[in-house]
Design a protein that fits this description.
The chain contains 11 helices and no strands. By secondary structure, the protein is mainly α.
Length: 209
């Protein structure tokens, strides 16, 4: 929760700095975002490479549970499609200026707000990138706050799917505390796989728009 609030605070500071008109020219170029994106991907790769237990954790999984990331991805896309059609019809036209692929791109961040919002900003503009940032932060915060209720109502796998790419780091403690140590390996594996897919699926939906 604290980390998410810090990210939101820096986002607000960035908006205020951009509106002030006093930013140097080199910070306004698209190349700056690309460099930041490359640095972020480097950090993700390093964090994955530094985990000595990743291989053994994956091997200990039940083969059927290995499909949980696939269920998370497909379920997220189905939810995005349902939301798009509910908010883009004759009764409600909140998304009349957006395409289905825009909603799918935002949803494909799987709570990895930093990486997905940069990709979407590069491909589809700052407005959709901002929406992606907020939507994925909200997904992480919902998981942090509602994990006990999700586990009680829908079972131990529900908060793992809800957490998306964050189940290998920020939401792992609350998930472990709620559903038990037996799901630690699954949670890490789930976060790793969804984390890995974010750049590819976000780019795919952005380029299809």
């Amino acid at each position: 929760m604290k980390g998410s609030l810090i990210v939101v605070a820096f986002f607000v500071l960035g908006v205020l700095a951009g509106r002030s008109g006093g930013m140097p020219e080199w910070m306004l170029s698209s190349g700056t975002s690309f460099v930041a994106l490359c640095a972020l991907l480097l950090c993700v790769g390093i964090s994955i490479g530094l985990n000595p237990d990743m291989k053994s954790d994956i091997k200990s999984l039940n083969p059927r549970l290995a499909l949980l990331p696939v269920a998370t991805i497909l379920g997220s896309w189905m939810g995005a499609m349902a939301a798009f059609f509910l908010m883009n019809n004759d009764v409600c036209s909140l998304l009349h200026h957006r395409q289905l692929t825009d909603c799918l791109a935002v949803d494909s961040g799987f709570a990895y707000y930093s990486l997905s919002s940069i990709f979407i900003t590069e491909y589809r503009g700052a407005e959709l990138g901002t929406i992606a940032l907020l939507a994925n932060i909200i997904r992480e915060m919902i998981t942090l706050l509602l994990t006990p209720l999700l586990a009680k109502w829908f079972g131990p796998l529900a908060p793992i799917s809800s957490g998306g790419a964050t189940t290998m780091d920020t939401t792992l403690p609350i998930i472990t505390q709620t559903v038990g140590q037996r799901y630690v390996a699954l949670s890490i594996y789930h976060g790793f796989v969804t984390d890995f897919t974010v750049p590819f699926v976000v780019t795919m939906w952005c380029t299809l728009a």
